Amino acid sequence: MGDSVLDIKKDNKLGQLKAILYLLQTNLEEFKDEVDSSYELLKIGEKTSLSKKIEQKMDNPIKDIFEFSSKIDNQVNYIIDKVVRGFLKKNSNIVEKAFKTKSNLDDLHYSIVLKEDNIDNRTKMFSFLDNFDLMDISQKHPIYFQFIPKQIIDKINYNEEIKFEN
């Protein structure tokens, strides 16, 4: 593999990492602002919706832990879905169409129509899954790719078609 290809891969990975960190930073800053406001208002006896939610959660912490866990799982799935979409878009030279076909609480399913369904193109797709499977998160949030022949595109039952244009 040439140095320029390795540089492009590093740049793409760096870009994805920057995007994820930016999203996390933005969400955390918004949450911090809300917490700061709630704290200051509580000093003068006013309760914000956040203060009221925390108070309710103190009354039934077990229920809220499960709800919070579910919300985290949804956010993790959302981020993983964005990463998968980025991967598919990056490989749009070999992917004709892609569909999000199913999403359960913890796993994500994609149907992929390759422009040329051959071992090399499938290997490129599976390399993503292989790398993902090496991470601990893959046990709780698995990703499934299903390859669909071009002839049956119209028979795919899907939730959403993944678009590759900007």
Q: Strand order, main sheet: write it out.
A: 3-2-1-4
What best-fitting shape do the alpha-carbon axes yield? elongated
Given as residue ranges, the uncertain stretches (5+ residues, pLDDT < 50) are: none
Largest sheet: 4 strands, mixed
How many distinct helices? 5
Number of strands: 4
- Distance N to C terminus: 28 Å
Secondary-structure element order, N to C:
HHHEEHHEE
Strand fraction: 5-15%
SS class:
alpha+beta
Rg estimate, integer Å: 21 Å
Q: Percent of residues in helical segments? A: 55-70%
Mean pLDDT: 84
What does this molecule look like?
This protein is an alpha+beta fold and 166 residues long. 61% of the residues lie in helices and 14% in strands. The protein is built from 5 helices and 4 strands. A 4-stranded mixed sheet has the order 3-2-1-4, with helices on one face. Strand 1 and strand 2 (108-114) form a beta hairpin. Helix 2 (49-59) crosses helix 3. The protein starts with a helix and ends with a strand.
